[in-house]
Amino acid sequence: MTMRRIGVWILLFLGLFFREIYAQTATLRVEPLEASSDLHIASMRVAIWPEYDDPRVLIILRGTFSSTSAFPTMVRFSVPDGLEMIGAGMVSEQGELLLHPHKIVRRQDKSLLSFLLPRPQFFVEYYYSPFSGAPDRQFTFALPTDYSADEIEVHVQQPLRSTDFRTDPHPNETRTDSQGFTYHISRFPQVAAEQSIPIQVAYHKEGLWAHSSSVFATGNG
For 33-80, how does the pLDDT look when each residue is reduced to its tens digit (9 = 90+)? Predict the structure, then answer.
């Protein structure tokens, strides 16, 4: 066997070896790089959609950090325990949702989602199951106030066929889209970092959830 062929086999072996090491370490819950605490959110919209296309609650965050000089940087958001991630990352200049690798770690009494954000526009999407009681459902969602914000706008979508729907705080306004969904909208100006803002949701609903195509991306609701 020539020295050239031996060298090729050595390189092939090393490549397979390090690929296996990477595959194993990628599944570990490694503590992420420290997220910046100096950031400030200009605006964030939080969509809370109970029983939308799944028996759980779908949470969708869209927002923009105010500073453009600090990017790329690590960011973090408080998330509920037992969630199922759909994705997190940046929103491109063309409005595309670009996924980025993320970690969820436990810090003291809460779970934190963290990822490297290349530009100020971000998104986070996940499901979680907070319900207690049926057919009378109720749950409380804590807004992720890891950063101060000029304004956080909350859109709670009322499930189809639900009755006696209530949110606390009381919404600033309600809207109904072309698909029949009603949105209970609340606005919170000048939010301080780590400020406690619980959103309580309660309603009555018989039977199972009903599937419908997404309307959030179109700007409705």
Answer: 465 668 999 999 999 999 999 999 999 999 999 987 789 999 999 999
The conformation of residue 32, written as its DSSP 8-state character, comes to P
Tell me, yes or no, if the pTM score tops 0.85. no
**One domain, residues 179 and 100:** yes
Same domain, 23 and 47: no
Does residue 17 lie within any of the structural domains?
yes
**CA 91 to chain CA mean position, Å:** 13
Beta strands in 66-109 (DSSP E): 73-79, 84-91, 97-99, 102-107
Q: What is the pLDDT of residues 110-152, one digit of tens each?
A: 899 999 999 999 999 999 999 877 799 999 999 999 999 999 9
Contact between residue 95 and residue 22 where contact means Cβ atoms under 8 Å apart = no
Give residue 4's domain range.
1-30
